[in-house]
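Project standup — Tuesday

K.O.: blocked on the structure for the chain from last sprint. Re-posting the sequence here as requested.
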Amino acid sequence: MIRRLQRSIPVAAAVASLGGCMPTAQEQRAEFMEPPPMRRTIAASGVKSVSAENGWPSQQWWKSFRCADLDGVMEKALLDNQGLRKAADTLKDAEAAVDIAGSRLTPYVEADLSYKQYRYAERGVAAGLNPLQGGKHKSAAFLNPISAKWELDFWGKNRALLDAAIGDALAQAGELEQTRLLLTTSVARAYLRGYILGEQLKLAKELTGMRRELRQLAETRYQTGIEILDVVQIARSNEESAVRREASLTAAIEIQENALARLMGEGPDVARGLFVRRQTVSPAQPALPRELPIELLAHRPDLMAALRRAEAWADRIHAAKALFLPSIDLSVSAGLEASVTSTQFAKLGGYLFNPGAMVYSVTPGLHLPIFQGGKLTGNLETQRADYDQAVDTYNETLLTAAQQVADALATLKRAKAEYESQGRFIKARRAAVQLARIRLQGGLQDRREFVQLYADTLDAVFIQRGMEGDRLIATVDLMQALGGGYDAGPQAYEPRPAPETDPITPVVDVVQSLGGG
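H.V.: unblocked you, prediction finished:
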């Protein structure tokens, strides 16, 4: 049984290798999705639609918050952030790959100069063929001022590889812009969170003082027998809660300062105390472009990068198909050659620099792949699989972009409604505080009740500040979802790659059917 299996293994390997040369089934390539409809989502958002020129964010969209400190932090981050620099270095690498790929389209020209000094063995091979050569010294020189080699790109293989390299560089440029977008939105979120926390800390300090006053009033009333101990304990607990909230806000502000320092490419000290000084942030009023889903490709750097990646893999499919077809290259060289049976350099130079020493060669070459054991077919299927993955990535990125816009609109709508509702609630509370102040001045109400009512109103303002932060962050989310001012992507009407409609595809299919590859 074992011997029978051993005899069958070579046969199975041969069948498998022959099968590797047969053409694989032409499965349907992945297709690009059309921009998803968003009309109902936009209509329900409550955000007005304007012309494309005014609807998309500007390049410096953060300036719409009208905050000089934020502008300064952003400028520093764009200059010194390490992640952004790393992405820029990666782009340089991709651009260098374009130069390498482009070099295949031009002849390679070189110059060579070689010298050789050697001695024949007295009983070696040369002496065996000619005994007079045994033991002699010999000098040889070769000067080749021009040597050129050029592959004639009949099937566009090298051109396709160049286009693929260009596509990778464009995709990397898009990823650099995506990194820039993520950096600017991260800086804006950290700064706005720190700003809101700073505003809340001011309220928290005032609230701590009022809770302390309420505790003191309760203790005084308890000592005079007017109040019970339970009220005193509640007042003390409220004061401790206010102290803990103040400490928590201070720590949260330091965390945002640390985050901003890292984003600016500096140590923690550079952002310390950033939110202590007085500053203002104006809420931005975002709008939406009327042709939002159609123009997303031109304004989302990640979407543009995904499309360029797919185009690059389509070009690699063409290059993989071209490997099935004959290739022709041409080598040309011309120079001088001389040798002498001595060590006299002057004599060698006289022979070398002589019209009779000229040599040249012209060598056209033809490469025809006949049987590669399935290597070419496997390479082609690999490129096809990578192309399908790239198209699927593009489709996923497109759906993610639409979802991010929808989520940002929903969050912005909720934050705006909550902020306005809280504003109406605070307005009613302040009216009640004003009435309480009048009653206090008229002796109709004691100070404890007035301070408690005023503290509850400050609590409501504290909550509204948090809602204001949610509103500001939702605006940043929308700016990011709309591409953050990027506008260098391709238009939606530009044709998408179709690698299986390549003119050489039928020829390659015939070659595969005959067992080539």
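K.O.: great, moving the ticket to review. Residues 1-25 have pLDDT under 50 and may be disordered. The beta strands are 49-50, 108-119, 137-152, 288-289, 327-340, 358-367.
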